[in-house]
Amino acid sequence: MDSSSAESLSLSVIVPVWMEAAGIQQALQALQPLRQAGHEVIVVDGGSSDRSVDLARPLCDHLLISEPGRAVQMNAGAQKAKGQLLLFLHADTRLPDNALAHLSQACQRGRTWGRFDVRLSGERRMFRVVAWFMNWRSRLTGICTGDQAMFVRRDVFEALGGFRHMPLMEDVELSKRLKLLARPYCIAAPVITDSRRWEQGGVWPTIVLMWRLRWRYWRGDAPESLAALWRRNVRHAKY
Q: What is the pLDDT of residues 4-62, one digit of tens each?
């Protein structure tokens, strides 16, 4: 990643992990140029019983163990972070090579938070269509999801109290509060997210599931019931 235009940026990348032994090394290897440029990578494991922790430890600056749950794990990482900008990255998502330059530009423009566009890793044409709708929905609504590598200034994140402790939709909920301060800064250079869950669950069933979850959340259903629905579908699709 090009760090020449981002010398003043102090970045902490926070990666929540659970049972990611199959891909965690590849995910963290992709972040080593950031570490070499002086930025930090924090991995927060939620109690994996595979080799995730052992594989991640040599490839990050801090390895934390927390209670499971992305909200809890990401908050734990944020508490440890020293960077002025926090970036929350899923273990199956890869940043673009020029991510640092884009993040530096966001900070130089005084933007407090934002996200990247997303592209699914699979080659099926339908994956491009899905990603297009995800990105434009986010632009129209100002709502970001974890697949889009959300970033936020640390002082703003701390002032808002971080992610709410909820088992699902923590990214949507935080976006709603951040929107009260400013619209998100949208970076068109896409992160690449593994299309595995779309391939294993089926494109249309996964789309329907996502919209069911969003509709029920908007309607006021408890996040716990939404998480139970998600887990049932995950087990059925063998994600």
A: 344 579 999 999 999 999 999 999 999 999 999 999 999 999 999 999 999 999 999 99
Same domain? 226 vs 148: no
Q: What is the 3-state secondary structure (H, E, C) of 206-230?
A: HHHHHHHHHHHHHHCCCHHHHHHHH
Provide the number of structural domains found in the chain: 2
**Residue whose C-alpha is closest to residue 155's, from 107, 106, 112:** 112
Per residue in 108-150, pLDDT (tens digit) is: 999 999 999 999 988 888 888 888 988 998 999 999 988 999 9
Question: Mean of the pLDDT values across residues 175-186?
Answer: 95
The whole domain housing 216 covers 197-239
* pLDDT attached to residue 169: 82
The answer to whether position 1 is within a domain reads no
Domain membership flag for residue 53 = yes
Could you tell me if 53 and 73 lie in one domain? yes
State the Cα–Cα distance between residues 176 and 190, nearest whole angstrom: 22
- The C-alpha angle with vertex 75 and arms to 73 and 79, in degrees rounded to 5, equals 120
Task: Please tell me whether residue 171 adopts helix, strand or coil conformation.
Answer: helix
Considering the domain architecture, whether residues 84 and 104 belong to the same structural domain is answered as: yes
Which CATH number goes with the domain that contains 38?
3.90.550.10
CA distance 146 to 70: 10
Sheet holding 113-120, edge to edge: 62-65, 40-45, 11-17, 85-88, 151-153, 113-120, 185-193, 93-94
219/49 Cα distance (integer angstroms)? 36
Residue-level pLDDT at 196: 75
